[in-house]
Specification:
Layout lengths: L1 H59 L4 E8 L3 E6 L2 E8 L2 E8 L4 E4 L8 E8 L9 E5 L1
Parallel strand pairs: 5-7
Antiparallel strand pairs: 1-6, 2-3, 3-4, 6-7
Amino acid sequence: MRAQASSEYLLIMAVLSAAVLPFLLVLAWNAAQQPEQLAMTMATASASRLAAAVNSVGSLGPGAALRTQVEMPNGVTLNATGHEITVHINTAIGPMDLVQPTYFPVNGSGLERVQAGGTYIIDVYGPTSPDAPNVTLVLN
């Protein structure tokens, strides 16, 4: 009788282990993906914040200025040309460009120094005249 009870107990434990194992594998896989997803979220939020700052300063007209703070993950490059703010990020599936459009033409100065993760302060300057509508981003 005891042998039967212990074999039933062993069978129940095997079935429960088989049911829990796929769940644990999914949790482990998601945990491995979290840092990359966080980096993509940070980069997207930073590009959106810069695009919003460009649109605000461009709407205010010549002489307007704004200082904004963005947090960048490791391994990114920031570019501002034309009507786009572009954050280039390397992911496990390959390089990816996160692009945020702007209503005003934009150019950047010193943005190539954004390569390491951290917090950056970027000054956004409005156009100098109505004839030159470029908004300028300057990394401090």
